[in-house]
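Reopening: Thioesterase domain-containing protein still failing for me.
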Amino acid sequence: MSHTDMHLPRTPVMLPAQLETSAPEDADSSSGSSSTSICSCCTSPPLEEPIHPADPITEHGLYPYTALEERFLRTLTIFSATPLHAQAMAMAPHDHRVTRQWLLIELLSHRIFSTFPEQGAIRKLSTSYYEPVGPGDILVISARPVTKKSLRWCEAIITRESMLVAIVTALYDGPPVGTRGDAWLRRPDDLLDQSVSLATSSLAPGHE
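Support: Ran it again with your exact input. Result attached.
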């Protein structure tokens, strides 16, 4: 997918107040961006009250959003993963809460970044949101690692039907550790077929 085919909005969308995690030195950045010094996907923060206390806790003692993230990641398919580029697809659950769960984008990006070899710990994760994600949306993510002098970072571009949804950048700290994440590999030619398959399976009886 070429960058010229994407319809770029003029400014990022506004983020919910609870996601305004930018450092003080980034206060002048766009209101549609968030930046954290520690990757939320790599840490286990203390449990907090759910965003909507009226939502029941699941039988396993997990908040409903945890189940939502698990359903989302089950649809993830990585079609190509090389040391220089990775491409994947995932479908948002048919659940109205996905429009408020912005961290699904960062979770998806983190999984794709882990396919690149020799990546260290993430020092800073920055995300710019441009379009909201809706129930059943099929997202395509294209990521690449970048090395410039002593800096190493990964950049991911998430789109929906050629519309830019978000750009995620992960800055890595320290020397590479030589780790590599697991990936379910498919041929790039399967992208269209998988898109149809995801949409069809979501309409099957009994599908969540």
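Residues 191-202 form the longest helix (12 residues). If you still see a failure, please send the error message rather than a screenshot.
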